[in-house]
Amino acid sequence: MKTKVLLMFFLAVMGFSRAQMPDHLYIVGSATPTGWHIDKSLELENVSSGVYRYTGPMFSGTYKFADSQSTEWNQNFYVKDASDDTKIIKNGEDQQWSVSELAQYSITLNLNTLMIDVQKVSDTPVYTHFWMIGDATDAGWAMDNAINQKFTAKSSTEYVWQGNLSAGSFKVFMGAFNDFDGSFYMPLSDGQSFSNPAAQIVNNGTVDYKWKVTEAGTYTVTVNTAGNTVTVAQETLGVTGTSKNRFSVWPNPAKEVLNFTADGLKNSQTAEITDMTGRTVLRTSVSDGKVNVSALKAGRYILKTGNHTAAFIIR
């Protein structure tokens, strides 16, 4: 009987413990891509009951965890034990973990044991969150406004933003918020032509290149992380209200055949492919929206046909 009572007590305690585990856990702080914007804080993966994991870039700064995105800041917080970085305290003093350098991290919290495991997995961060910023955008250069100009993930390597741009300049931001020496996608040179989608990741403010918008209108900006390209296309509207400048290419990366589609494309129309230096490597006629690219070496290329331009990768 005593054994049975103890077992029932143990099971009751375990059930109570599980019931106290939060449904969600979020990382917030100056070391995270979204900074202290708790309403936009990044949710951790729920690995198992009471175990949560964040995998992604971390910047020089501090961070802690919350169980909601309430802007009232009255939620439960999980902070660092002042005497042991590997231990977690729920609603303790505001002791935060710190990061000294930009890198890719894996951070696992076990709320069953109140322990945290922080691992730097690579010196090269993997970016999956992007925002538009610049005086060509509605938010201008105010980072607290740029948080609302987020790119939408189209795939694991392609992210898209669409909206109105005014005459001015812009770049693409990856974090950390309110740090203008953070991470940006920039063109290879200041004011680089939209016909060249080659881009570079810049950290720590080493250069400050921007794309320049000369004509106000609706634009689609696409980041391709596999090829480090940023494609900028203006949407030209006809009387029917449908886009005349949308251009899609697939598969990307390609191996043998590249497919593409857009309004106004015709068979026998010339397609030109250039490498990232601008050298023409292939010129051929369009046949049913297909181009044979099997003769091209692995690398990044630009397809041009008519008024359409798109970047793609050969593997």
Describe this structure in words.
It is a single chain. This protein is mainly beta. It is 7% helix and 44% strand. It contains 2 helices and 26 strands. It has helices spanning 2-19, 143-146; strands spanning 26-28, 42-43, 45-48, 51-58, 61-66, 77-81, 84-90, 97-99, 103-110, 115-122, 131-133, 152-153, 158-165, 168-175, 183-187, 199-203, 211-213, 217-224, 229-235, 248-250, 257-261, 270-275, 280-285, 290-292, 299-305, 308-314. Strands 1, 2, 5, 6, 7 and 8 form a 6-stranded antiparallel beta sheet that branches. The protein is elongated. The chain starts with a helix and ends with a strand. The model is unreliable at 7-18 and 237-244 (pLDDT under 50).
Features:
315 residues; mainly beta; six-stranded antiparallel β-sheet; 2 helices; 26 strands
Low-confidence stretches: 7-18, 237-244
Query: Major sheet, described briefly?
Result: 6 strands, antiparallel
Task: Compute the number of strand runs.
Answer: 26
Provide the helix percentage. Answer: under 10%
Question: How do the SSEs run, as a string of H and E?
Answer: HEEEEEEEEEEEHEEEEEEEEEEEEEEE
Structural class: mainly beta
Question: What's the tally of helices?
Answer: 2
Mean pLDDT: 88
Gyration radius, in Å: 24 Å
What is the 3D form?
A: elongated
β-strand amount: 35-45%
Tell me the span between the first and last alpha carbons.
68 Å
Quick take:
This protein has 315 residues and is mainly β. It is 7% helix and 44% strand.
Topology:
Elements: H1 2-19, E1 26-28, E2 42-43, E3 45-48, E4 51-58, E5 61-66, E6 77-81, E7 84-90, E8 97-99, E9 103-110, E10 115-122, E11 131-133, H2 143-146, E12 152-153, E13 158-165, E14 168-175, E15 183-187, E16 199-203, E17 211-213, E18 217-224, E19 229-235, E20 248-250, E21 257-261, E22 270-275, E23 280-285, E24 290-292, E25 299-305, E26 308-314
Antiparallel strand pairs: 1-2, 1-5, 3-4, 4-9, 5-6, 5-8, 6-7, 9-10, 11-14, 12-13, 13-18, 14-15, 14-17, 15-16, 18-19, 20-21, 21-24, 22-23, 22-25, 25-26
